[in-house]
């Protein structure tokens, strides 16, 4: 198959590109390298340096493409608050451009990387896909709008789409800046600098951490499943959550507590729908995932 991955130089995108190439697919990567790194791009991929906000520039690259994975985004919450226009242009206008180009090229399906941040202040747990999102930042709203654009393009233009809502993704090539930076990344940086691991509040707050290879597997299953493509939304998490204190213990570092901040206390995905329809099951437990991430980080530095 001929596959296009936007944001293929980034954390999740580059891991996805590697997996697709390992399966024997021809992969084209579109990335402007604003947050991604050229060294992340698989040497067997066809790399195009381009910005998804430029519709005319990206359209030719969709010709002959079978499937599109739209992973590119500007995942910065604070920047979206300070400069909502810039992040809107990338996260909403860019997504619209991808869908227009895919529609016109008659691709078989678009798989959109959505975000659990769309749920915002909804405190009902575990979070199901049909819960009412209450975004609390422009970034979260922008990612939620992308879900609805996908649904509308399936409804109005017969373009098959699927949205995958990621929960706290971590693993090799993970970002150390951006939206909803995982505590795992923070702890890795602090250990590298010889600092204590800072725990906000009492450390009892929990998150649903998802290893990147499991996210990649969900994307590929969404591509291969011929029964879906009507704008469906799937939670992609582990269906299990762990406290900050647990993560610190696994990271084996000295800790210190700092004042609490305003944030959701807990996060947990209901992944029943992904299990039943996608046939997806997360495989990497937190202990194994952190070990792999630490090994990668230590090798990197």
Automatic annotation (TrEMBL):
Domain of life: Bacteria
Ranges of residues in domain NAD-dependent epimerase/dehydratase: 3-237
InterPro entries (UniProt xref): Epimerase_deHydtase, NAD(P)-bd_dom_sf
Alphabetical list of CDD domains matching this protein: UDP_AE_SDR_e
SUPFAM superfamilies: NAD(P)-binding Rossmann-fold domains
Family: Belongs to the NAD(P)-dependent epimerase/dehydratase family.
The protein's name in its UniProt record: NAD-dependent epimerase/dehydratase domain-containing protein
């Amino acid at each position: 198959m001929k596959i296009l991955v936007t944001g293929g130089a980034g954390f999740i995108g580059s891991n996805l590109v590697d997996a697709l190439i390992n399966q024997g697919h021809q992969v084209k990567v579109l990335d402007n390298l604003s947050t991604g790194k050229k060294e992340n791009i698989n040497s067997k991929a066809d790399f195009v340096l381009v910005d998804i906000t430029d519709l005319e520039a990206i359209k030719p690259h969709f010709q002959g493409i079978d499937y599109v994975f739209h992973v590119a985004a500007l995942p910065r919450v604070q920047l979206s608050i300070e400069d909502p226009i810039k992040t809107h242009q990338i996260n909403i206008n860019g997504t619209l451009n991808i869908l227009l180009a895919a529609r016109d090229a008659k691709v078989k399906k678009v798989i959109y990387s959505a975000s659990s941040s769309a749920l915002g202040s909804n405190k009902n747990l575990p979070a199901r896909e049909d819960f009412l999102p209450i975004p609390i930042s422009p970034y979260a709203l922008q990612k939620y709008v992308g879900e609805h654009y996908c649904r509308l393009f399936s409804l109005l233009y017969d373009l098959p789409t699927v949205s995958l809502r990621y929960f706290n993704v971590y693993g090799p090539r993970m970002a150390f800046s951006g939206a909803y930076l995982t505590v795992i990344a923070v702890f890795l940086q602090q250990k590298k600098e010889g600092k204590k691991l800072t725990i906000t509040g009492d450390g009892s707050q929990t998150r649903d951490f998802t290893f990147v290879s499991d996210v990649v597997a969900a994307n590929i299953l969404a591509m291969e499943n011929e029964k879906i493509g009507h704008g469906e939304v799937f939670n992609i998490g582990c269906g299990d959550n762990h406290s900050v204190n647990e993560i610190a213990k696994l990271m084996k570092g000295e800790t210190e507590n700092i004042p609490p901040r305003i944030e959701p206390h807990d996060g947990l995905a209901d992944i029943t729908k992904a299990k039943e329809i996608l046939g997806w099951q997360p495989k990497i437990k937190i202990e194994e995932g952190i070990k792999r991430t630490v090994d990668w980080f230590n090798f990197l530095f």
